[in-house]
């Protein structure tokens, strides 16, 4: 009975310290860019996720019927909940909205390195503007986070494309709407499946071999010059991507990004820019991903509002940081350990601890009879800064002994001076 559900994690205090450190970096990058935090329930109505385009995410749903026979699901992602919240206050929210959250998400996935059945996913989204500057701002949030944890553009690349690239190519072949979304979902799997399997799946959708060849050659384009040559002169995809790269350039973060037409993303709702961050060596799966989704609300029965955002999981990034030796060694952050060396002095220890806590020091009060030796070992283990000893000798003179564990310095102080 010590094992939890497959693909889920326990967070012991050591793990929790790291998780909080990671989340603090997520929060910091968000706040620096003026985003506000929100949250939503982990349990949603199943229909929020029943999209018909055959996305993996909807096949991996943790869904069940509750005791009132309602069909519910654990959220596999935050975006539909966010869309629901925005819809519920449609008209009442001053636009644009810049919100972030760090929800736990659940997907019945094949567990593997960097992929669990639950993960925490930092979500940063901007609603209410079609401006490409919003997409650039998101890239800046991501770069700020990477810099905060010590990663550089030599470690990371953010690959950017637009759904409009494929849309323009397929639109001229009359492939639109649902068929287009389904095509995107299939070609998103190009790095996981062989080109034969992808070809088979595309032909099952009704694409001819010429169309499949066109799709594959467009997705192979790796620079804007190549893209310009392949699309029409007045291509919206090209002009929007040019503006996006220009905006990113004004942030001074161009070395972090590159155009890559093979970035399509596996979710049906994206309509414009799409991006993913990868480790340059290509050892891990995508670190984060997102893009513009201007038409999600109408699929949920509301009036559309432009939106753009990304999701950033807590698993791949920790693997990468471990590989780069960038995981910090964190200690408990406790200032003082207070111990009485005689059971009769326990009440003094309680008073000392209380007055230290009043002056905002974090205190671990030793609750049992323990010896000095134990206290030193304990202090070392948790990385405390000071040991505060209430010992019979000193206390007979109303003094308390304080040992600074960083300098080794010892002093005696009275209770009033604590
Ligand atoms: P997604 O690409 O499905 O997008 O997930 C975003 C990120 O969440 C991934 O890049 C990865 O870091 C993490 N992730 C996803 N599934 C797992 C898993 N099973 N285990 C560990 N990490 C995982 C979305 O979910 C979109 N809703 C993101 C978004 C927000 N787009 C616009 N706004």
Automatic annotation (TrEMBL):
Give EC number(s), comma-separated: 6.1.1.21
Molecular function via GO = ATP binding; histidine-tRNA ligase activity
Q: Which residues form the Aminoacyl-transfer RNA synthetases class-II family profile domain?
A: 1-328
**Catalyzed reaction equations:** tRNA(His) + L-histidine + ATP = L-histidyl-tRNA(His) + AMP + diphosphate + H(+)
InterPro entries in the cross-refs: aa-tRNA-synth_II, aa-tRNA-synth_II/BPL/LPL, Anticodon-bd, Anticodon-bd_dom_sf, His-tRNA-ligase, HisRS-like_core, HisRS/HisZ
Gene Ontology CC entries for this record? cytoplasm
Q: Which GO terms describe its biological process?
A: histidyl-tRNA aminoacylation
Origin superkingdom = Archaea
Residues where L-histidine binds: 77-79, 107, 121, 125, 265, 269-270
Which SUPFAM superfamilies does the annotation name? Class II aaRS ABD-related, Class II aaRS and biotin synthetases
Keywords attached to this Swiss-Prot or TrEMBL record, sorted alphabetically, are: Aminoacyl-tRNA synthetase, ATP-binding, Cytoplasm, Ligase, Nucleotide-binding, Protein biosynthesis
Identify the CDD domains for this entry. Answer: HisRS-like_core
Q: Does the keyword NAD apply?
A: no
Q: Assign the protein's first listed, main location to one coarse class.
A: cytoplasm
Q: Which Pfam families match?
A: HGTP_anticodon, tRNA-synt_His
* Protein's cellular compartments: Cytoplasm
Taxonomic lineage is: Archaea, Methanobacteriati, Thermoplasmatota, Thermoplasmata, Candidatus Thermoprofundales
What family does this chain come from, according to its entry? Belongs to the class-II aminoacyl-tRNA synthetase family.
Q: What protein name does the entry list?
A: Histidine--tRNA ligase
């Amino acid at each position: 009975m010590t094992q939890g559900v497959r693909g889920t994690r326990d967070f012991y205090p050591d793990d929790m310290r790291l998780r909080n450190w990671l989340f603090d970096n997520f929060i910091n990058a968000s706040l620096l860019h003026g985003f506000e935090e929100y949250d939503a329930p982990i349990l949603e109505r199943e229909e929020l996720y029943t999209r018909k385009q055959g996305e993996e995410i909807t096949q991996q749903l943790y869904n069940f019927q509750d005791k009132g026979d309602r069909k519910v699901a654990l959220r596999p992602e935050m975006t539909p909940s966010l869309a629901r919240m925005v819809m519920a206050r449609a008209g009442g929210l001053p636009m644009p909205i810049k919100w972030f959250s760090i929800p736990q998400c659940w997907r019945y996935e094949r567990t593997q390195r960097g992929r669990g059945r639950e993960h925490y996913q930092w979500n940063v989204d901007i609603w209410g503007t079609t401006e490409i500057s919003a997409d650039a701002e998101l890239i800046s949030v991501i770069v700020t986070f990477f810099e905060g944890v010590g990663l550089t553009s030599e470690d990371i690349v953010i690959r950017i494309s637009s759904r409009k690239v494929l849309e323009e190519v397929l639109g001229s072949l009359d492939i639109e709407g649902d068929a287009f979304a389904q095509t995107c979902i299939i070609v998103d799997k190009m790095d996981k499946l062989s080109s034969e399997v992808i070809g088979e799946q595309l032909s099952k959708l009704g694409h001819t071999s010429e169309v499949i060849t066109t799709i594959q050659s467009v997705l192979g384009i790796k620079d804007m010059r190549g893209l310009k040559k392949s699309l029409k002169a007045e291509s919206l995809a090209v002009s929007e991507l040019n503006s996006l790269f220009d905006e990113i350039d004004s942030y001074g973060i161009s070395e972090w990004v590159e155009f890559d037409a093979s970035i399509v993303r596996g979710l049906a709702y994206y309509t414009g820019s799409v991006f993913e961050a990868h480790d340059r060596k290509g050892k891990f799966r995508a670190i984060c991903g997102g893009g513009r989704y201007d038409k999600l609300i109408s699929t949920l029965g509301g009036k559309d509002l432009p939106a753009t955002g990304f999701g950033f999981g807590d698993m791949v990034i920790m693997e990468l940081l471990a590989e780069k030796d960038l995981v910090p060694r964190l200690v408990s952050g406790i200032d003082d350990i207070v111990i009485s060396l005689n059971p009769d002095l326990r009440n003094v220890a309680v008073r000392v601890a209380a007055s230290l806590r009043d002056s905002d020091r974090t205190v671990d009060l030793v609750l049992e009879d323990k010896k000095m030796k134990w206290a030193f070992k304990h202090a070392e283990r948790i990385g405390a800064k000071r040991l505060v000893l209430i010992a019979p000798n000193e206390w007979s003179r109303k003094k308390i002994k304080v040992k600074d564990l960083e300098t080794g310095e010892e002093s005696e102080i009275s209770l009033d001076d604590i």
